[in-house]
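Lab meeting, item 3. Inverse folding demo.
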């Protein structure tokens, strides 16, 4: 883009950000399709109402006749003050069923974060983006299944919880929910917010009845809302026993990226026990949300599956530049100078949708956080950035994201098993159950072996030796197919075993895979084996044992050693 076109586009974006947003009149509300209506003699005559509400006969008649005409012609009532107020309240109750933003603004009270005061809940810009995704699912009568990857400090958890409360108070009865964080403190914060909203809920919306909650069967962490007889249970991943998962319709799992796998218990197990109690259907909810905390964990795997449409979750990502707080003013006359100073990454940020003012803020933040990966984790611009773990990038982010487009999921996930029979040793590929996949030790296969005897040395198997503990690096066994090199191409990865395993078992696993792929050349990383000598393992013995059973091993012998007649290494 030219400098002039950047300035024009930036002005347009600033205008969209500063546009009027009034959830009471509906102006600027974009979560659902809206229609402009005018109802004479109402306290608010001109409104942008949800299209679903405008289709109601009650609203159509009001729009046609006005409040006075409706009372006289349809209800045969006097248009006195009492009847006008009752008609208006009936209209508001109907609107609350169709218009979450209106309900949130007019019916709820929350703490204004960082300001020490209470305020009505008015959705900010990223919250409106997230709400639109939930409303699209609700209005299409699908389960509201969301996985939310987010930047920090914009209220995603608050919106999730109030949306669930809206369903429990306005739409459903006996509609129970579960809220589960990493630690109990996260759940207790949610409980305090819900208690405040419920205690201050206007009585006119419940027929004059004060909303209250009470312990369910004596359990303090499970509360019953008296008005709708709906329950919400609070718990944590570290202490899940307090969760009541029977007969639930909604579940909100927060900061799942922080959930740790421990001996005998994995995040998947808890998630499955909660979600397994939900009979999916309209108005049911399953929300998994978190800031990203590295790759390979449950949250990251579920996100990848959602983006590839391999599960039922709708992925929602909120970049940092959607949050209005992250912005720094730039004088109009300084725009040209600022654009000239932008580097390649900052130009990419603008292409993604950031304003120049947001980029100016981000530039300062980059100076505060010298570790680029930490910056990406806390303030991600894309989902791929959010899941970056540690270290400095070797390749430009744009290049990596472009290459990701050609990645495909494996055709087989399981393991290779060596079996002996009267004809000798044979290897077979066996699929894993869902529970076994969660263990993290498995073989992913994109192309099964093609042992064409007319081609020699087609496959090569390499082994990257990791640790054996749950917190250590993973070991990897990679199979590369070199057939494309016959036509000047490059090798292609066709299989990968990944996991934590004792090193002697890892070596034998590599042999099994190499045998299956036409007795491929097997290359085992040597430096780890040569420098480690812990846990009583004799690595030299292990490799010697393999060499006696598998001959196609890569050998590394220096020129000096060859001249001296030394044996192969």
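The presenter then showed the designed sequence:
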């Amino acid at each position: 883009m030219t400098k002039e076109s950047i300035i024009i586009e930036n002005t347009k974006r600033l205008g969209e950000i500063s546009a009027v947003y009034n959830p009471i009149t509906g102006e600027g509300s974009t979560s659902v399709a809206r229609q402009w209506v005018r109802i004479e003699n109402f306290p608010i005559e001109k409104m942008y109402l949800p299209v679903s509400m405008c289709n109601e006969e009650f609203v159509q008649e009001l729009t046609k006749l006005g409040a006075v005409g409706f009372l006289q012609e349809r209800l045969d009532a006097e248009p006195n003050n009492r009847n006008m107020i009752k008609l208006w309240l009936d209209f508001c109750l109907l609107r609350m069923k169709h218009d979450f933003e209106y309900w949130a603004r007019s019916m709820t009270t929350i703490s204004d974060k960082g300001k020490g005061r209470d305020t009505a809940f008015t959705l900010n810009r990223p919250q409106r983006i997230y709400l639109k995704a939930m409303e699209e699912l609700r209005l299409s009568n699908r389960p509201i299944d969301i996985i939310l990857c987010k930047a920090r400090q914009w209220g995603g958890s608050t919106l999730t919880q109030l949306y669930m409360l809206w369903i429990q108070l306005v739409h459903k009865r006996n509609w129970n929910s579960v809220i589960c964080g990493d630690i109990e403190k996260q759940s207790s914060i949610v409980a305090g917010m819900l208690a405040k909203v419920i205690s201050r809920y206007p009585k006119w919306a419940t027929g004059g009845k004060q909303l209250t909650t009470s312990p369910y069967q004596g359990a303090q962490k499970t509360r019953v809302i008296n008005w709708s007889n709906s329950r919400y249970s609070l718990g944590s991943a570290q202490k899940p026993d307090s969760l009541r998962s029977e007969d639930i319709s909604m579940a909100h799992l927060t900061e799942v990226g922080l959930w740790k796998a421990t001996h005998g218990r994995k995040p998947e197990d808890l998630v499955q026990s909660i979600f397994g109690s939900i009979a999916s259907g309209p108005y049911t909810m399953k929300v998994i949300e978190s800031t990203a905390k590295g790759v390979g964990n449950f949250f990251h795997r579920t996100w990848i599956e959602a983006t590839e449409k391999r599960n039922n979750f709708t992925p929602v990502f909120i970049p940092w530049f959607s949050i209005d707080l992250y912005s720094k003013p730039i004088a109009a006359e300084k725009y040209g100078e600022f654009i000239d100073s932008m580097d390649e990454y900052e130009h990419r940020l603008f292409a993604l949708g950031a304003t120049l003012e947001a980029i100016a803020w981000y530039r300062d933040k980059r100076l505060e956080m010298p570790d680029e990966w930490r910056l990406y984790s806390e303030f991600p611009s894309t989902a791929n950035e959010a899941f970056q773990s540690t270290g400095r990038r070797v390749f430009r982010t744009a290049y990596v994201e472009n290459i990701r487009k050609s990645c495909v999921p494996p055709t087989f996930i399981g393991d290779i098993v060596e079996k002996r029979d009267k004809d000798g040793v044979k290897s077979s590929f066996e699929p894993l159950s869902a529970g076994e996949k969660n263990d993290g030790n498995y073989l992913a296969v994109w192309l099964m072996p093609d042992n064409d005897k007319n081609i020699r040395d087609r496959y090569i198997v390499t082994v990257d030796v990791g640790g054996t503990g749950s917190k250590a690096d993973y070991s990897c066994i990679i199979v590369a197919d070199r057939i494309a090199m016959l036509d000047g191409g490059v090798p292609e990865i066709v299989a990968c075993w990944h996991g934590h395993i004792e090193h002697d078992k890892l070596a034998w696993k590599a042999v099994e895979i190499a045998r299956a792929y036409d007795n491929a050349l097997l290359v085992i990383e040597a430096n780890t084996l040569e420098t480690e000598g812990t846990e009583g393992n004799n690595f030299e013995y292990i490799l010697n044992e393999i060499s006696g059973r598998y001959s196609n091993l890569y050998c590394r012998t220096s020129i000096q050693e060859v001249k001296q007649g030394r044996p192969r290494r």
